[in-house]
Amino acid sequence: MRVDVHHHAIFPRYTARLAEIGVLAQPGIPLPAWTPADSLAMMDRLGIDLAVLSVGSPGFFWGDQALATDLCRETNDALRETVAARPDRFRAFVAVPLPDVDDALAELDRVAAADAFVGVGLLTNYAGRYLGDPAFDPVLAALDARGAVVHVHPQLPQHYPAAEITLRPSLIEYVFDSTRALVNLMLHGVPDRYPGISWVFSHCGGTAPYLAGRLAIAEHLPELAAVGPAGVYGNLRRFSYDFALASTPFSLGALRQLVGDGQLLVGSDFPFVDETTVAGVLTEAAEVLGAPAFDAVARDNPLRLFPRLKA
User: Fold this and answer.
1) pLDDT, tens digit, for every residue of 134-154?
2) pTM exceeding the 0.90 threshold for the entire prediction
3) In the chain, where are the structural domains located?
4) Burial of residue 9 (number of CB atoms within 10 Å: 0-12, 13-18, 19+)
5) Mean pLDDT of all residues in the chain?
6) CATH class of the domain defined by 3-310
């Protein structure tokens, strides 16, 4: 059995409502077309048995909280219907209408217990506030009480050098933003304060494996005091990571040396990443990990992380 924990659902209603306000997947890049049948065909050809669906970037909030909350409700209902149609092949992460904490808590109460959902999907930042920001503590407390699995997907930062670097920003900004969110969680002591949350970071945690040693050397600095006795290395080993678009020996290999095989998960990033590229990522990951370890990453790790999948 292979489980893909980073797999996107892009519903027509979501795309249409974003088009009404001029929002694209990222600047100059439209959202890809998608149907559940597209995912099932790709999964069958690449040997993926089950995909955990999420929306990911560009998310739901562009200054209008009422729209964000409405979009999340529509999306979660569509996710639930999609899973109900093929419960043998799909599960989903709950979409949460942050930055409004009350609306986020209400949506968790409304749908998180449904069988379709095996966890919650969060973005790295909401209107420039990163995960770990004390404003989001009530949501983290609720997730901790639920023993939730939280998949963190990168988002574009509010400010990036769009005029200076002529490259679609997702290629570098997404991994930087994953790093910002991951580090901010540690800087606010979130792993110790909310130990019931199981965190999954996309794309091998961005640049965190490379920066781990640099941060560990600086643990004596006052701003790192809240990292706690486990230290930077210990905290990074508490998290799980999917290897979507990060299967090289230089990314997956580095992360593997830091956290071991037990914290690794399969991620495709389909349909933002095309099937041919996903196939190459899976092949490369199998070469980097070796066949027995790859099988454990694809099957054993998600079954251990997501108790609901065992049923």
Assistant:
1) 999 999 999 999 999 999 999
2) yes
3) 3-310
4) buried
5) 96
6) alpha beta
